[in-house]
Design goal:
- 78% of the residues lie in helices and 0% in strands.
- It is mainly alpha-helical.
- Helix 1 packs antiparallel against helix 2, helix 1 runs antiparallel to helix 4 and helix 3 packs antiparallel against helix 4.
- The two termini are 37 Å apart.
Amino acid sequence: MRKAFAVVSTALLIVFALQFVFAAVGAFTKPQADSSYALHSLTGMAVIPLLTLLTTLFAYLAKAPGRLIGLSILPLGLTILQALLAMLANAFTDASGGSTVAGLIVGGLHAVNGIVAVHIVVAVVRGARKLAQSPNAVERESAAAPSVDVA
């Protein structure tokens, strides 16, 4: 399970990297249409959530430390925030449908949130690889943890 955790988390990282490519494809598609961001939307709304859930499941099955399991599920919350930021950025338009300062700021936060999500996934991949390389890592952590006597 530990190797599966490492593989799935690496796949998640690759998909996150592709997400930036898909955003650029949407931005540079001419003429702009609702379908310009189709790959970006599909990946963000379906592929990333599914891979995040799989990564979290494999983290749990690999008996990863609780912190690593928590980090594994965090991209799902950040992906939900991404969708909300995109909707909010699109809602902040002027009467003619043009961009506003508020919309551009929220759109910028959409990009920053994406970068934060990638950094979280990088931390998950590092943790998964470390866990996969050391088959007794969980046992050593448990043995090193101080025990508490309940008399």
